[in-house]
Amino acid sequence: MASVLFVCTGNICRSPIAEGFGRAMVAEAGADIEVASAGIVGWEGSPAAHESILAAAECGIDISGHVATRMEPRHAEDADVVVCMAREHRDAVAHLAPRAAGRTFTLKELVRLLEALPATPSTTSFEDRVGMADELRRSGFEGDPADEDVEDPLGATLDAFRAVAWELDDWCHRLSPGLIPAKAKEEAS
Predict the structure, then answer these.
(1) Among 8, 65, 122, 153, which one is most buried in terms of CB atoms within 10 A?
(2) Nearest 5 degrees, angle CA 67-CA 73-CA 78?
(3) Contact of 156 with 54, CB cutoff 8 Å
(4) CA distance 84 to 160
């Protein structure tokens, strides 16, 4: 089974929301993909921030049962793709788990790479799509380096958390068509 790991700092704000949208994306596609999240300095055992729970719920996503996890190298090494909320997380994952560096992206970077790839047959696997995105990145594709991060709302107002949830909703919906083979979507129909 393929797997996606969403990563942020504490695993209480951004990555739990992204995980919730990721789970919804996978369920909608009928794909067999495991979705999880962790934090570089994860607040191990903590619930998601109350504002994250509220903002996600307003978008139809329930993360009320989330429990924060501190990212260990094995989490990244075991994931088929690591989707980070910011460049600092991508760089930290590459440092902690060098073998996962080619499968580690910021969310916005991965979406832009997948959208820039030529159309692929529905038989192209999840792992192949991630590999193709990495190849395109290594070939010099820049995307939009000025806009790679999803801002951390920790300590901000509920409206800031809402803005992050809306942003993650948009980017996760854009992620799905490029990452999940059309075959999985067709079989779910």
Answers:
(1) 8
(2) 85
(3) no
(4) 19
23 sits in which H/E element: helix 14-29
Exposure of 157 in the CB half-sphere (CA atoms within 13 A): 3
Report the distance separating Cα 20 and Cα 18, nearest Å.
5
| Domain limits, the chain | 2-188
Overall CATH class of domain 2-188? alpha beta
| Strands of the sheet with 81-84, listed across from one edge | 33-39, 2-8, 81-84, 104-106
pLDDT digits (tens, 9 = 90+) for 63-84: 999 999 999 999 999 999 999 9
Q: What is the pLDDT of residues 100-117, one digit of tens each?
A: 999 999 999 999 999 998
User: Which value, in Å, is the radius of gyration of the alpha carbons in the chain?
Assistant: 15
Selection from 111, 96, 99, 185 nearest residue 147 by Cα: 111
* CA end-to-end span of the chain: 20
